[in-house]
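Backbone-to-sequence.
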């Protein structure tokens, strides 16, 4: 049965059909791909060794940083999961496929959501990482997100029953909000956003609500560039320089990478060309003073990432973060044609399509070695989830929020009527996804243990504690 579901051809829909007709077409897919089938996770006989996948995804990364990558993944099964998007992408290929494709986040786990400021200085809740964005089956994002709650729940010592409930709430929230979006016009969906302050008000935990309200107030008042400037720089004569904090922030040497300030300025110039004219005019008032490598995240460790410091003539700073843009882990696993030759452009355009509001300086560039990058502000009033302090009810609230944000993102590039028609109004799909999440959490534990063994055997190098 599974093979039949996987091999079926992609379904196309008439965008001029009524909402009711599209809803019914989505419902008709259930006859080919039953909603209950999504509970299945059967380990393929030809499943590639997860350690081999990790090693493959490390090819082309900065070798001296790989021990930091593996050290961070070794911290827990949840940390491993965060860095193992390629492993799950290869597994999802073997699961039932509805044939409904749209723009995916590609690495949709609970730590890739949070609050941030829009260009209009409004704090919203949304997805905030799109390194792996690509066109693919909508259910892949949802399954990875739901599984992340099951895996994180185990890390926090919740029972399997509770972890399954977290995953269920992700899928149920996605269902309810996708139905809401299916009733709106395309323009109404495009304008839709999730107000962070209003979202926090929906919570029932008064102590955590007060904690987050203080964080929002601080974020709203936070003049990121000035405070980062005071913390991260020093003056070398008349020029401001970024402080080295090896191994996480450091300047490249001529021997390690053939980068010079002149080359960095050329890369920056190419980046400016990707921006709209008014952004180019704005940034023309700033010049580059310095750039340095900065190790970020879990999955990104080892890729060429860093920060650049721009200064105006009157001394106002702007920090930009640049990240190497590599092939999406989804690309080898889907049949869709690649839209962009430039991986940085792929990320930027995917982000603009899925986010309700994107960073005003989001753009792309490349260097003379053919490496692609995307660029955004280093920090802009970000409010990250604090998983460590969440109790059961907080995790449920957060699961609902993430399911809502994912539904809004998918509704922008996909057809919410078709997706909603497939899911329907029963609990069958949410029940299936929650069962899948526990099965995948088991698989993730097994893969994590294989990594621990690989480290002990010397197959994977790890750094000392940082």
């Amino acid at each position: 049965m599974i093979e039949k579901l996987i091999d079926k051809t992609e379904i196309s829909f008439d965008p001029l059909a009524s909402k009711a007709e599209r809803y019914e077409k989505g419902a008709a897919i259930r006859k080919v791909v039953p909603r209950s089938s999504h509970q299945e996770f059967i380990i393929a006989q030809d499943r590639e060794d997860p350690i081999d996948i990790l090693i493959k995804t490390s090819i082309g990364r900065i070798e001296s940083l790989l021990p930091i990558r593996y050290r961070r993944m070794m911290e827990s099964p949840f940390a491993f999961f965060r860095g193992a998007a390629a492993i799950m992408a290869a597994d999802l290929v073997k699961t039932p496929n509805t044939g409904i494709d749209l723009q995916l986040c590609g690495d949709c786990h609970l730590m890739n959501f949070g609050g941030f400021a829009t260009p209009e200085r409004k704090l919203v809740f949304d997805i905030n990482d799109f390194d792996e964005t690509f066109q693919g089956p909508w259910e892949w994002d949802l399954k990875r997100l739901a599984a992340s709650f099951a895996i994180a729940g185990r890390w926090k010592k919740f029972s399997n029953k509770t972890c399954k409930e977290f995953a269920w709430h992700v899928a149920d929230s996605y269902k309810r909000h996708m139905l809401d979006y299916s009733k709106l016009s395309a323009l109404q969906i495009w304008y839709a956003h999730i107000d962070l302050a209003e979202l926090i008000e929906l919570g029932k935990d008064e102590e955590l609500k007060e904690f987050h309200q203080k964080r929002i107030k601080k974020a709203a008042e936070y003049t990121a560039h000035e405070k980062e400037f005071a913390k991260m720089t020093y003056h070398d004569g008349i020029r401001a320089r970024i402080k080295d904090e090896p191994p996480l922030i450091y300047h490249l040497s001529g021997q390690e990478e053939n980068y010079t300030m002149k080359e960095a300025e050329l890369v920056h110039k190419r980046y400016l060309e990707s921006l709209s004219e008014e952004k180019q005019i704005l940034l023309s008032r700033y010049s580059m003073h310095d750039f340095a490598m900065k190790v970020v995240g879990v999955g990104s460790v080892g890729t060429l990432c860093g920060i650049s410091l721009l200064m105006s003539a009157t001394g106002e700073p702007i920090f930009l973060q640049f990240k190497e843009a590599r092939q999406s882990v989804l690309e080898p696993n889907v049949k869709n044609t690649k839209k962009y030759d430039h991986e940085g452009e792929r990320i930027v355009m995917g982000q603009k399509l899925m986010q309700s509001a994107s960073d005003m300086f989001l753009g792309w560039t490349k260097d003379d070695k053919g490496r692609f990058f995307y660029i955004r502000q280093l920090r802009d009033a970000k409010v990250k989830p604090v998983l460590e302090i969440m109790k059961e009810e907080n995790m449920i609230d957060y699961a609902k929020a993430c399911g809502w944000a994912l539904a809004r993102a998918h509704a922008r590039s996909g057809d919410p009527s078709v997706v909603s028609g497939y899911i329907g109004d029963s609990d069958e799909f949410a029940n299936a996804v929650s069962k899948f999440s526990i099965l995948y959490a088991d698989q993730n534990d097994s893969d994590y243990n294989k990594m621990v063994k690989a480290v002990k055997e010397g197959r994977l190098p790890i750094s000392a504690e940082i």
